[in-house]
Amino acid sequence: MEDSDGVRMRFAVSWRERLRGLLLRETTDEVLVLVPCSDVHTWGMRRAIDIAFVDGCGRVLAAHCNVGPCRRVRHPRAKMTLERFSRDDVEWFRTGDQIRIVRLKG
Predict the structure, then answer these.
(1) Residue 40 domain-assigned?
(2) With b meaning 16 or more CB within 10 Å and e meaning fewer, what string describes 53-62?
(3) Is residue 20 a part of any domain in this protein?
(4) Would you say residue 92 lies in a domain?
(5) 84 contact partners, CB below 8 Å, separation of at least 6
(6) Per residue in 67-92, pLDDT tens?
(7) What span, in angstroms and rounded, lies between the C-alpha atoms of 35 and 87?
(8) Residue 65, C-beta contacts closer than 8 angstroms, at least 6 positions apart
(9) Which of 25, 44, 46, 89 is least buried, going by the fewest C-beta atoms within 10 A?
(10) pLDDT level of residue 5 (50, 70, 90 thresholds)
(11) Is 96 inside any structural domain?
């Protein structure tokens, strides 16, 4: 997924933040990064989400689009998971993509 302006991300690192994920959140363009995470559920979700499982080197191990409510998706080798509300107008990650997360000051 290439974006010259970058992608805005929010990190979920505590157990509670990871459990909540996107549940009950307002629709946003942000990508939620769950660390550590290799297992995602969509129980209680009202909208479909896109999910990408990433290894410790930033390689996308598996990517899923339009995952509906009441589903469970996992990848045993994932160290982090990226998720967002599904969108047709913006490309999502594909298996084999390499990601790099850079913190910007400001």
Answers:
(1) yes
(2) bbeeeeebbb
(3) yes
(4) no
(5) 22, 28, 29, 30, 31, 32, 49, 50, 92
(6) 999 999 999 999 999 999 998 888 99
(7) 23
(8) 50, 86, 92
(9) 89
(10) low
(11) no
Predicted pLDDT of residue 39? 95
Candidates 32, 104, 36; CA nearest to 74 is 36
Q: How far is CA 86 from the centre of its chain?
A: 10
What band does 36 get if pLDDT is binned at 50, 70 and 90?
very high
Least confident of 7-16, 30-39, 47-56, 93-102: 7-16
Q: Encoding tokens for residue 9?
A: 């991300």
Assign residue 36 the CATH number of its domain.
2.60.120.1140
Domain count, the chain: 1
**pTM of the predicted protein model:** 0.85
**For the purposes of burial, counting CB atoms within 10 Å of the CB of 87, is it exposed (0-12), middle (13-18) or buried (19 or more)?**
middle
